[in-house]
Amino acid sequence: MTGVICGTGACVPDRILDNNEIAEFVDTSDQWIQERTGVIRRRIAVKETTSSMAAEAGRQAIEEAGIKPEEIDMILAATATPDHIFPCAACEIQEKLGAVNAVCFDLNAACSGFLFAYQTAQAYIVSGMYRTILVVGSECLSRIVNWEDRGTCILFGDGSGAAVLRAAEGRNWVSAAHSDGKGGPALLCQGPNAEESGKTGNLPGQAQPEGDGGKRPGISMDGKAVFQFAVRKVPEVVREVLDANGLTAEDIDWFILHQANKRIVESVAKRLKTDISKFPMNLQEYGNTSSASIPILLNEMNRRGMLKKGQKLMMAGFGAGLSWGAAVLEWGI
Ligand code: UT7
Hints:
Elements: E1 2-11, E2 15-18, H1 19-22, H2 30-37, E3 41-44, H3 50-65, E4 74-78, H4 89-97, E5 103-107, H5 113-127, E6 132-139, E7 159-168, E8 176-179, E9 187-189, E10 219-221, H6 223-244, E11 254-257, H7 262-271, H8 283-286, H9 293-303, E12 312-319, E13 323-330
Parallel strand pairs: 4-5, 4-6, 11-12
Antiparallel strand pairs: 1-7, 2-3, 6-7, 8-13, 9-10, 12-13
Helix pairs in contact: 3-4, 6-7
The structure holds oxa(dethia)-CoA.
Oxa(dethia)-CoA binds next to helix 2 and helix 6.
């Protein structure tokens, strides 16, 4: 028993923010951004939200799967930017889709989110607990980006992607995932309870520090450290998954990597001694959409007819945590 993807969907905001527009408020240029990252433009949520985009992506995936929302047993939303701390995004998506029989929860593994959620969904299906699962990656990163930091604000974008997994007879592929909390400071975004927020508690009458209570909220990143981590760990985990399944890189038709930086994707392809044409990219259009990047790309390839039944796909995610992982699957649509 395994979970087979039988429908995909994606939704991105209408508002396009190109590199030249960013160069109007931070000291950067279209040329620098394109050369160092590959990003040309990204989408920014204005009226859209994490759950509204996720529901639209989910609706498309359900439609393609040819099922009713009531048939979904579980909604798993990978997000680091839910609309509310609670209820979770997955419950909000459930309500919008009318997936009344689904159990719903969120999973935050930053840019590895979709990959980890996919693995979690597979585990539920293989165990026999659930048969039909909607996995969504959805982010409004523009809400947590520090728009004064040119080292990070150029990278990220908003969007959502989704896939419906259904239990079917088939090979249960081995996947892999890893975390390294020691690397946490390399890529972080403080939350309301973070030590660095400077807050001493919330009891009535408790004195709070002057000013904004510490560092400006938003994503902070040691770009070089994250870059080096990604180009070392992604090929490693891909090889781990290939070996565990008795496959070689030649057996894989498409490598669907988290879309963080063109140079990272190129470097991974080189280290795997695999032609770059097997590594599709759309980061030039959307930037880094964190947990949404893999399912947005998957949906784009699916809708363009690039994926053929029986082809082998290798998905690989990496990001804050630090966290990274890979999973192989056979395309079933
Ligand atoms: O999902 C995972 C999320 N994170 C990532 O994937 C990030 C991985 N890292 C990266 O993609 C790259 O490290 C960046 C694109 C963030 C930065 O590229 P880099 O080649 O590592 O640049 P750098 O940080 O070493 O900076 C080189 C120079 C510096 O100037 P000096 O010190 O050489 O004078 C920076 O101040 O480029 C400068 N710089 C910029 N210049 C123009 C940094 N950001 C910009 C900018 N525009 N936006």
